[in-house]
Amino acid sequence: MFYDDPSAYKSFLIEELQDLVEVTALDRVINIEMNALLADIKQAVNNKSISHSDETGVARWEKILGVTAPLNSTLKARKEALKARLMTKPPINLVTAKEIIQAYMGLEVDVFVSDFTLTVKYRGQSRVSDLTPLYATLYDIIPANLIIDISYLFLTWDELDSLNITFDSLDAKALTWDQFERGDWVE
C-alpha cells in the first residue's frame, strides 16, 4: 500500500530546486513527519481487523466488545478471545446457536425453534452441571422475543421398541436403571 513506501519530498520537486540547501533541510523535516503520518495510517488500517491488530488495536477492540483481557495473556490469546466474542454477535442463526451450545455443553444437541421458543434437547452426560451461564450467554445473543428451553432427552419406550433389542441383549449391556433411562448407550 501507499503507506509502506518511504517519503521522498525532494522527488516531487523539479531538479533545479532539489540541490538547494533550504530544500534539503525541508526534505529532512518533512520526510520525518510524513513517515510518522504514514506509520499512523498503517497502524489505523491494520487495527481495523482483529487479526492484524497490535497492542493498541486489541485494547480498542476489547473496549468496543466489552471483553476484559486475562492477566498475563499474550497478544494472540487476546485476539482469539476477541474473535470468539465476535462469533456471539449477530447475525445469529440456528447453526451458530447450536455450535455455541455444543461447545459449552461438550456434547451433541438438537436445536429447533417453534412458537417463539428455542428448544435444546440433549442426551448424555453434560460437561457442565450448571447451565445458568449458558442461559445468560444465549439470552445475550438471541432475539429478545425468544424463550430458551433446555431439556434432557430421556429414552422413550417407542425408541426402545424401534431398536428391536431383546431383553437378553439388554441385560448383556449391564446398565444401571439411571444409565438405561438416560439412553446415551443407544447408538
Record keyword descriptors for this entry:
187 residues; 3-stranded mixed β-sheet; 10% strand; 3 strands; rod-shaped; mainly alpha
Number of helices: 9
Strand proportion, as a percent range, falls in: 5-15%
Unreliable stretches (pLDDT < 50, length at least 5) are none
Structural class: mainly alpha
Oligomer: single chain
Main sheet summary: 3 strands, mixed
> Over the alpha carbons, how many angstroms does the gyration radius reach?
30 Å
The strand count comes to: 3
Question: Ends: how far apart?
Answer: 56 Å
- Outline: rod-shaped
Number of domains: 2
In spatial order, strands of the major sheet run 1-2-3
Give the overall average pLDDT. Answer: 82
Characterise this structure.
The model has no long low-confidence stretch (mean pLDDT 82). The protein has 9 helices and 3 strands, in the order H-H-H-H-H-E-E-H-E-H-H-H. It folds into 2 domains: 2-76, no CATH class; 88-152. It is rod-shaped. The chain has helices spanning 15-18, 21-46, 55-65, 75-87, 94-105, 132-141, 157-162, 167-172, 177-182; strands at 109-114, 117-122, 147-152. A 3-stranded mixed sheet has the order 1-2-3, covered by helices on one side. With 187 residues, it is mainly alpha-helical. It holds the Pfam family Phage_Mu_Gp48. InterPro entries: Phage_Mu_Gp48. This is DUF2313 domain-containing protein. It comes from Youxingia wuxianensis.
